[in-house]
Design goal:
Layout (H helix, E strand, L loop, with lengths): L2 H25 L3 E2 L6 E12 L5 E5 L5 E6 L3 E12 L2 H7 L5 E5 L3 E6 L6 E2 L1 E12 L3 E5 L5 E4 L5 E4 L5 E6 L3 E4 L5 E5 L7 E4 L5 E5 L5 E6 L5 E2 L5 E6 L3 E6 L4 E6 L5 E5 L13
Parallel strand pairs: 1-8, 3-7, 3-10, 4-9, 4-11, 10-12, 11-13, 12-14, 13-15, 14-16, 15-17, 16-22, 17-23, 18-22, 19-23
Antiparallel strand pairs: 2-5, 5-9, 6-7, 18-21, 20-21
Length: 281
């Protein structure tokens, strides 16, 4: 081997190393699920917490759906299903205890969060599914990264934000702030109060059902899609393919609906439950 070719190999290795090092740092903390994850290990627990009237319920998840149901009473019940998947049964069982759920509960606020796993996982994945029953008049703050947020029979304010997944709401009655990036937002309002209703996504549709007698100031916008506000008594002040603005029944509560890639629909509410199109394995 000549010195020239030996030097070229050395410099080539150095260049490859320079590229590989930042790539390793970029992947740190990521969940890389490669291969056939046919084996799983699961467990679950149910905890209950007292909550004062008007208190806050905070649920934060990373991977997995979050289901919230408003009920009578002054107790928050949280059932959490932990799921670890691996290429072998032993790998799944070894991973399960690493899924940590942190609790912080006071009479005024109940907070339950899934902690993020550090490092790189190859040939494995984790998921937590939350099933929550709590006072219907509580204040709800729900965040997720990969998974659906489902809300039902809640009269208090709701903030529901996810990234990859939809937000679904049935028979809500308070202010709503529902947002996602990749997924649809479908909310059914049993009543419309004075607090703002804001629904937004980037890639997906937005649908809001409201009582025909609701009084609201409406602004609906989209970039690639259409807007449909038929079936409601609305005085439209501005209308185009990308923007509709107007007043329902003389105006009142602020309603803002927005998407980039998808349609927007404002319609009379129905008693039908919004269809859950998010896949749950």
């Amino acid at each position: 081997m000549t010195w020239h070719s030996h030097r070229s190999r050395i410099f080539g290795a150095v260049r490859a190393g320079v590229i590989a090092i930042p790539l390793a740092f970029a992947l740190a903390g990521c969940d890389m699920s490669l291969g056939n994850l046919s084996e799983r290990a699961t467990d679950e627990w149910t905890h209950t917490y007292p909550l004062k009237a008007g208190g806050e319920v905070h649920i934060a998840n990373t991977n997995g759906r979050v289901d919230i149901e408003g009920v009578d009473g002054a107790t928050v019940e949280v059932r959490a299903e932990r799921i670890a998947k691996g290429s072998t049964e032993a790998a799944a069982k070894e991973l399960l205890p690493r899924i940590v759920i942190k609790e912080d509960a006071t009479p005024d606020r109940v907070s339950v969060e899934t902690e993020k796993l550090g490092g790189i996982m190859i040939g494995a994945s984790t998921e937590v599914r939350f099933h929550v029953k709590a006072p219907r008049n509580a204040v709800y703050t729900i965040t997720n990264t990969n998974g659906l947020i489902s809300l039902k029979d809640i009269t208090g304010k709701v903030s529901a934000h996810t990234t990859n997944g939809g937000v679904r709401g049935t028979a809500l009655g308070g202010g709503v702030d529902a947002r996602t990036t990749n997924g649809g937002v479908t909310i059914d309002m049993a009543s419309v109060g004075s607090d703002k209703i804001y629904l937004s996504t980037v890639n997906g549709g937005v649908t809001l059902g409201v009582p025909e007698t609701a009084k609201a100031d409406v602004l609906a916008t989209c970039t690639n899609g259409g807007i449909n506000v038929s079936g409601l008594k609305m005085e439209v002040s501005e209308q185009s393919r990308r923007r509709v603005e107007g007043k329902m029944n003389g105006g009142g509560t602020s309603i803002e609906l927005s998407t980039v890639n998808g349609g927007v629909r404002l319609r009379p509410r129905s008693t039908a439950t919004p269809k859950d199109t998010d896949h749950e394995p």
